[in-house]
Design goal:
By secondary structure, this protein is α/β, with parallel strands linked by helices. It contains 10 helices and 16 strands.
């Protein structure tokens, strides 16, 4: 079991909770985390750490270097979501239309507490890079930090990240040696028909009819052309066409998303969508084009790093509280970019206490502060597992 040196003090946890509530009250959207980033930097510098600002815009890295040993990266995300908070907490968002509904305020505070805890340890040797990332929520902040030289300027043997996870009991960890979260791509399809009077449809080519047929056909990609053993989700989420009751429009637009847990499946689905859009409308006298945008890749853990998380979590929490080879989520996460560039692992920290947590991205969601000491212990134990090897 971890020794007393790995247990964060109650005063540190109280500090971290206060930081978390301050961040919660002052949420900032992707690449606009100016106050958050500056506050994080000030705290890190107060711990005695050197801080490099401006990676990926508002991202930053603090380094603890003490003696020899491998360099390990620990990452937290800082951005909030563009949604209105609906809670009566004293620390509720003070920014209209913006809230921390995913727990990034908690992740940031947890990593800050880990940094302070390790800085105050008199027996730690090695190197830790504390990575505070902007724009996780669709903004691709991890990729921007990498493009700014994250792994060249701060070489590291491995990188680790976590996320609080509603639906899993507090005090438990979920991890697997492969895909933790899905890729996330988007598509926009334009159906070109020919406008006409609604009373005389034979005079035109109805793009709405074509779009309706295409929506149904697209659903067969996952249900009939991809193996049931390969996870994938294809959702058409927007249909735009028409302006009046008595007008058959000239065009119709479909938008949607594709999520996969395997890159080969992802590539196949993209080709199938393109082929279907180019051929099906022709049967109706229409034409179709698709703009397919690749988004976040699969969040793919390095097997050895995932096993290390498992071993550490068993030591910290007990075997009964570690969910190994857990089912992946079809949601996406841009920590995937870091895992493409550096070995590492991403894991979930159970968020459900006596009362189940609200779902992520819910207007009354609030991070469970009771997770902070567990997260600090896990991060610390991961770092020490390299020191003690």
């Amino acid at each position: 079991m971890p020794s007393f040196r790995d247990l964060p003090t109650s005063s540190l946890i109280a500090e971290a909770s206060a930081w978390r509530r301050d961040f919660h009250a002052h949420p900032e959207l992707a690449y606009a985390e100016h106050r958050t980033s500056e506050r994080v930097a000030q705290l890190l510098e107060s711990f005695g750490l050197s801080v490099t600002r401006g990676l990926g815009g508002t991202g930053l890295v603090a380094t603890l270097q003490r003696g020899s040993g491998p360099a390990i990266g620990l990452r937290a995300d800082m951005d909030a979501l563009p949604m209105q908070e609906k809670s009566d907490h004293a620390y509720a968002s003070t920014h209209e239309g913006c809230m921390h509904a995913c727990g990034h305020d908690g992740h940031t505070s947890m990593l800050l507490a880990t940094a302070k805890h390790l800085c105050e340890s008199d027996d730690f040797t090695g190197c830790v890079h504390f990575i505070f990332q902007p724009a996780e929520e669709t903004g691709g902040g991890a990729r921007k930090m990498i493009e700014d030289g994250l792994f060249e300027r701060f070489p590291m043997l491995a990188v680790y990240g976590l996320h609080n996870w509603p639906g899993i009991a507090q005090g438990s960890v979920s991890v697997n040696p492969g895909a933790m979260m899905a890729s996330q791509d988007t598509f926009e399809i334009l159906i070109q028909g020919s406008g006409a009077h609604a009373a005389m449809p034979e005079k035109g080519i109805d793009p709405i009819t074509v779009a309706s047929q295409l929506v149904s056909s697209l659903q067969t990609i996952v249900s009939r052309r991809i193996s049931p053993l390969d996870s994938a989700v294809l959702s058409v989420t927007v249909i735009e066409a028409g302006s009046a009751y008595n007008i058959i429009p000239h065009t119709a637009t479909l938008k949607g998303t594709v999520r996969c847990l395997d890159q080969a499946v992802r590539n196949r689905i993209q080709k199938m969508i393109t082929a279907m859009v180019e051929t099906l409308p022709v049967a109706f006298g229409a034409s179709g084009t698709v703009e397919y945008r690749e988004g976040y890749p699969v969040t793919q853990n390095d097997p050895a790093c995932a096993r290390r998380v498992r071993e550490v979590a068993v030591q910290v929490l007990g075997d009964e509280n570690v969910l190994w080879d857990a089912k992946a989520s079809m949601a996406s996460e841009d920590f995937a970019y870091m895992l493409q560039s550096c070995p590492g692992a991403y894991f979930w920290l159970g968020a459900d206490g006596a009362q189940p947590s609200r779902p992520l991205h819910h207007p009354t969601y609030d991070f469970n502060d009771a997770l902070i000491p567990t997260g600090v212990r896990l991060f610390t134990a991961i770092v020490r597992s390299y020191q003690d090897a």
